[in-house]
């Protein structure tokens, strides 16, 4: 009875005193910087349950029993948090809250000048990794697909990326921010090489035609930045049977890590025996490759990635002498390649993000020219550390250090003439960079950066400013501009002869307009590029006459249109580039258009899925106007031009079963005669004439057939995204 009495007394006292507890009303109105009401904003006292949401007119009202100093807070998606310390003493309080847009969170405006992003978080992307794999004529090659974008140049005898009047060596490749040396596989003289890595390894590919971030250096014209995938989510085995070889891949996934391994063998001997070749192959290209990819989630914010690739390849052919077609030179090329890449990313406190990486490349070439032997060995280490932080709602900042250590050696031995010599160099480059994204308004973004590099070989310090602006002109369109100075060490064959050569330089100026709406993209870009300190020489076989007195320019217009919506199950894009460029470099006698450049380049790519036959069809048409070449039998310098280049390619991917894909592709369906240039003898014959021959593809067409099988527990996975 006593306990019941006490319990009833407590209930009575609670009922008496609860209504007496002091209640304070907090009222007000919440608007943005333009005076527009914010609907649904959360307004509350921090560390309490007291709060409410704003109504259709931005008004809010709630009561609290708290007293004393309290923190009033307002939050809304896309706006910076509002906080204010208030004093509650029982009297009603009223506030007029004005919230500022958090431009860093909205990211409605991004830098597009010179940038083509494929994947990742960029809302302005124009290509995806899947596009690279399914572009007809590219045969799954990253560079082959990117060569259908404006700003690139069709150079069929190389296969590399030539960007806006720049040579292939002026484009550098980075995986997870770390440089890849020798990105292209070895190839026979005047035949195209392929990029070493497959696109499906990457979640995003950013291809810059100029004006790129201060984080990336040692590239005069372009940076190809590829971000690898994170954790695999399913166990699987992939088996590929191809007309040129085969491969097998295994993927294993765990809760916080995954491992993928792949082995591939390629042998073109059976293929070249069936298809007539321009080349007299002794052994067609053959290669064996192994790769491994490990991913680990270290914490809620920490990630570790490791990638390794090993490749061994070789080829042998007979090349006839230009002045005597009956005499053959047996040419052999063997390459051994190793690339390792490790990257760690994590948050380190106080809002700072850390990214640290290390990459190692070792490429060894053994070249035989009859009895003469040439051995080339290039290895390099690239280490990088980057710190980044969002300083406030409108400013982000990052800074970092780069270190490159590269060695190149070349040895030559000819027993008949008792020639035996070695040349080479050891180069170290240290760099510091800093860059900041500043949202001046919600529609105006500035990216300001600087990169400083010190090169040990020539004791040279270069300071390169970078500036980009983007202005959002309407909901779906924007204008961007970019300026940057870029430098790059001279090519390795010149540095081996004259290590003290200065760095080559280029200044980029870019103006861009882009419209991106409803799966449609239109962009137009004007560019101007000034070259300085290019390498010149009298005779490349000696160290005489080498200097940095070369110069040049490139300017022009790029157009791009992509539409993935107007036609059912159809995606297509159209690219056009006009380039006006001239150079006075190497042993040029005057400032002229170089032999790798054509004025006009056009590409049309279309992909269509036919549900009735479970097939994806693709076609690509490419055209490039004639390229200049020098004919020593005629007066003048670089006065002749090759014929206009045309290529129509197609592919088809057929879903035979849910886990089996049959894929076929063919280049140059029309069988047109494609001439990339001409070779001339170094000495005239008895009649004073320089013998010549045309540079053509190894065969008029390349036909590929493959069967791709996926084995998994789900039995529905396939390799269509990788074809």
Overview of the molecule:
This protein has a 22-stranded antiparallel β-barrel. A five-stranded mixed sheet has the order 8-11-12-9-10, with no helix packed on it. The protein is mostly beta strands. The protein is built from six helices and 38 strands. The N and C termini lie far apart (83 Å). The chain has two domains: 22-100, Carboxypeptidase-like, regulatory domain (Immunoglobulin-like), CATH 2.60.40; 115-186 and 207-631 and 643-722, Beta Barrel (Maltoporin, Chain A), CATH 2.40.170.
The fraction of residues assigned to DSSP E strands is: over 45%
Structural shape? globular
CATH superfamily of the largest domain: TonB-dependent receptor, beta-barrel domain
CATH topology (level 3) name of the largest domain: Maltoporin, Chain A
Decide which structural class fits the backbone.
Answer: mainly beta
State the major sheet. 22 strands, antiparallel, barrel
Q: Supply the number of helical segments.
A: 6
Mean pLDDT: 87
Distance between the termini: 83 Å
**How many structurally independent domains?**
2
Percent helix range: under 10%
Secondary structure tally: strands: 38
Specify the CATH class of the largest domain: Mainly Beta
> From the coordinates shown, what is the CATH architecture of the largest domain?
Beta Barrel
Low-confidence stretches: 1-20, 117-126
Query: What would you report as the Rg, rounded to the nearest angstrom?
Result: 31 Å
């Amino acid at each position: 009875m006593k306990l019941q009495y006490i319990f009833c007394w407590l209930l009575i006292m609670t009922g008496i005193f609860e209504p007496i507890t002091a209640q304070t009303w907090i009222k007000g109105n919440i608007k943005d910087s333009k005076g527009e009401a914010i609907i649904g904003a959360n307004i509350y006292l921090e560390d309490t349950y007291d709060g409410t949401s704003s109504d259709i007119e931005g008004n809010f009202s709630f009561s609290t029993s708290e007293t004393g100093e309290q923190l009033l807070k307002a939050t809304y998606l896309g706006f910076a948090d509002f906080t204010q310390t208030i004093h509650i003493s029982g009297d009603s309080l009223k506030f007029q809250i004005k919230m500022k847009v958090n431009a860093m969170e909205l990211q409605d405006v991004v830098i597009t000048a010179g940038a083509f992003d494929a994947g990742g978080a960029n809302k302005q992307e124009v290509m995806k990794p899947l596009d690279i794999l399914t572009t007809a004529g590219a045969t799954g090659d990253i560079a082959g697909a990117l060569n259908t974008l404006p700003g690139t140049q069709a150079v069929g005898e190389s296969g590399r990326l030539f960007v806006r009047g720049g040579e292939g060596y002026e484009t550098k490749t980075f995986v997870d921010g770390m440089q890849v040396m020798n990105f292209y596989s070895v190839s026979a003289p005047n035949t195209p090489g392929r990029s070493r890595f497959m696109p499906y390894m990457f979640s995003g590919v950013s291809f810059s035609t100029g004006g790129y971030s201060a984080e990336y250096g040692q590239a005069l014209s372009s940076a190809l930045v590829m971000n690898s995938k994170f954790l695999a989510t399913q166990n699987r085995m992939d088996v590929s049977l191809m007309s040129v070889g085969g491969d097998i891949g295994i993927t294993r996934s765990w809760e916080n890590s995954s491992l993928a391994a792949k082995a591939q063998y390629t042998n073109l001997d059976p293929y070249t025996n069936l298809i007539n070749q321009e080349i007299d192959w002794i052994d067609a290209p053959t290669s064996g490759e192994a790769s491994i990819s490990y991913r680990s989630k270290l914490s809620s914010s920490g990630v570790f990635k490791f990638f390794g690739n090993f490749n061994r390849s070789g080829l042998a052919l007979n090349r006839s002498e230009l002045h005597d077609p009956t005499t053959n030179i047996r040419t052999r090329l063997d390459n051994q390649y190793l690339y390792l890449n490790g990257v760690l990313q994590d948050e380190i406190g106080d809002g700072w993000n850390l990214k640290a990486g290390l990459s190692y490349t070792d490429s060894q070439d053994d070249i035989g020219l009859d009895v003469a032997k040439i051995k080339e060995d290039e290895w390099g280490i690239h280490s990088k550390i980057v710190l980044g932080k969002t300083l406030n709602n409108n400013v982000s900042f990052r800074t970092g250090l780069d270190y490159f250590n590269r060695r190149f050696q070349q040895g030559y031995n000819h027993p008949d003439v008792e020639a035996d010599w070695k040349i080479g160099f050891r180069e170290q480059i240290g760099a510091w960079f800093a860059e900041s994204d500043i949202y001046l308004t919600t529609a105006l973004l500035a990216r300001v950066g600087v990169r400083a590099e010190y090169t040990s070989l020539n004791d040279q310090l270069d300071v390169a400013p970078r500036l980009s602006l983007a202005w959002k002109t309407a909901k779906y369109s924007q204008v961007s501009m970019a300026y940057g100075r870029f430098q790059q060490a001279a090519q390795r064959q010149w540095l081996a002869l004259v290590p003290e050569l200065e760095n080559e330089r280029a200044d980029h100026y870019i103006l861009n307009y882009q419209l991106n709406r409803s799966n449609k993209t239109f962009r137009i870009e004007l560019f101007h590029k000034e070259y300085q300190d290019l390498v010149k020489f009298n005779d490349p076989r000696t160290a005489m006459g080498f200097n940095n007195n070369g110069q040049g320019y490139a300017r022009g217009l790029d157009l791009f249109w992509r539409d993935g919506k107007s036609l059912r199950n159809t995606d297509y894009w159209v690219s056009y580039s006009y380039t006006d460029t001239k150079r006075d470099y190497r042993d040029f006698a005057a400032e002229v258009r170089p032999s790798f450049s054509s004025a006009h380049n056009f590409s049309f790519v279309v992909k269509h899925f036919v549900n009735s036959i479970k097939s994806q069809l693709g076609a690509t048409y490419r055209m490039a106007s004639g390229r200049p070449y020098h004919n020593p039998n005629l007066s003048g310098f670089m006065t002749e031009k090759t014929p206009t280049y045309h290529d129509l390619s197609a592919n088809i991917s057929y879903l035979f079963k849910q886990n089996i894909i049959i894929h076929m592709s063919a280049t140059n369906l029309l069988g047109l005669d494609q001439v990339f240039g001409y070779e001339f003898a170094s000495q005239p014959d008895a009649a004073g004439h320089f013998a010549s021959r045309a540079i053509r593809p190894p065969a008029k067409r390349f036909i590929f057939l493959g069967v791709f099988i996926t084995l998994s527990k789900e039995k529905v996975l396939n390799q269509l995204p990788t074809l």
